[in-house]
Amino acid sequence: MKWDNYYYFNFSHYVHTQIEGTQEECLKSFEEQKEKFPMMQYGTHIHEKDFSDPEHSYIVIRRFVNRETCRKHCTFPPTYKREGRVIE
User: What predicted TM-score, i.e. pTM, was given to this entire model?
Assistant: First the structure.
């Protein structure tokens, strides 16, 4: 299998959504995103957050653009396997 054309951390593989509001509103929005885009299928997670002021908080939710990209990312072999090397 040929792996050299896949740029593992390409920015186009991800969707970023910034939510601002109270800490409660931010976490509620995150739960809604997880319902639409389940964590185990899209890798949905809070990438960045600031809850230092519970009344003026923000989060950045990050997920893969689709299920196939998530699958490919999660099963992409490490460099030593792609290059046919052995770790001793």
Answer: 0.81
pLDDT, tens digit (0-9, with 9 covering 90-100), for 38-84 = 999 999 999 999 999 999 999 999 999 999 999 988 888 777 777 77
Point out which residues pair with 60 in neighbouring strands: 18, 48
Q: How many other C-beta atoms can be found within 10 angstroms of the C-beta atom of residue 56?
A: 12
The β-bridge relationship of strands 45-50 and 14-21 is unpaired
pLDDT in tens, 14-35: 999 999 999 999 999 999 999 9
- Transcribe 18-69 into DSSP letters: EEEE-HHHHHHHHHHHHHHS-HHHH--EEEEEE-SSTTSEEEEEEEESSHHH
